[in-house]
Amino acid sequence: MRWGILGCGDVVRKRVAAAVQTATGSELLAVCRRDDAALRQFCADFSIPRGYPSADQMFADEEIDAVYIATPVDMHLPQTLAALAAGKHVLVEKPMALHPGECQMMIDAAKEVNRTLGVAYYRPFYPVLNRLGELIQTGQLGEVLAVQIVCSAPITLNEDGSAPWRVNAQQGGGGPVMDVGSHRIDVLLRLFGEVVDVRAVCSRKSPDEVENVANFVLQFAGGVQASVTCLFDAVQDPDSLVVVGTKGIADLSPLNSGRLILRNELGDQVEQHSPHANFNVPLIEDFVAAIEEDRPPLVSGVDGLLVNEVIERIYRDAR
């Protein structure tokens, strides 16, 4: 699978480019960035043969099979539609789009041209979450009562001192609910299914900014309640996930570590289920396998839509 990456920001430099180059069955053929000097530097740093200053130029490259879109959220819809129209498969960064209507347009467009559409929620590939699912399904936690999650993301100013796009409501669509909360919503939907009720409070430093603190509670059809705190700019990311049941507690904090502490009448049992060293590699390998096997990827456009639907309900209740 010959890939092009649209956008060369922080997440691409940290993980995505290396993941495409490492993933079985993938080759990173090209990247796209408007800044010519930054584009040439990125291509040199990762030994990428082709660099394009515009998305249209990259989409016109007939040797590119799939595109990873890693741009601000407001660009996901137009760039996904353009890539699909050019015959490319698309793996788009999370959250999938600004709102559910845009997600549905992307899904419909992929169906129309018979191309695969995926969303870059990589936590479903964490072995520790698979283990948590086993504990829930086998009743080792008893009846699950509640989930508690706290997560945060740092806000780093751009080199020129300006604020990053993630705090711009027009570009990012929201604050930490969109940015880091979306990952946790995806996990919760996979574990517990349909959300039947939402309660939310969001705080802003000023009326024209995105929220910097958000607390929301999701109630699921089975009765489980999940309380989630999402933050921008805490000193450290708690990255906590704790599941409380009638027979035991599963503590997966910090989630990215792969550690699980099972607390029950026998005491504390510590397990280790480490994720891949590069979180994005299993995501990309599954996406490629899905195309080869003619099946939906584990994280499909429909999954991305479901997350955006919950996010919309959170913001609606907070207002």
Q: Could you characterize the architecture of this molecule?
A:
By secondary structure, the chain is an alpha/beta fold. The chain has 2 domains: 2-120 and 280-299, NAD(P)-binding Rossmann-like Domain (Rossmann fold, 3-Layer(aba) Sandwich), CATH 3.40.50.720; 127-274, Dihydrodipicolinate Reductase, domain 2, CATH 3.30.360. Helices cover 37% and strands 25% of the residues. The chain has an 8-stranded mixed sheet. Strands 3-2-1-4-5-6 form a 6-stranded parallel sheet, with helices on both faces. α2 (36-46) links the parallel β2 and β3 (50-52). The radius of gyration is 20 Å and the shape is globular. The termini are far apart. The mean pLDDT is 96. Keywords: Oxidoreductase. Residues 131-249 form the GFO/IDH/MocA-like oxidoreductase domain. InterPro entries: Gfo/Idh/MocA-like_OxRdtase_N (IPR000683), Gfo/Idh/MocA_oxidrdct_glycsds (IPR050463), GFO_IDH_MocA-like_dom (IPR055170), NAD(P)-bd_dom_sf (IPR036291). Pfam families: GFO_IDH_MocA, GFO_IDH_MocA_C3.
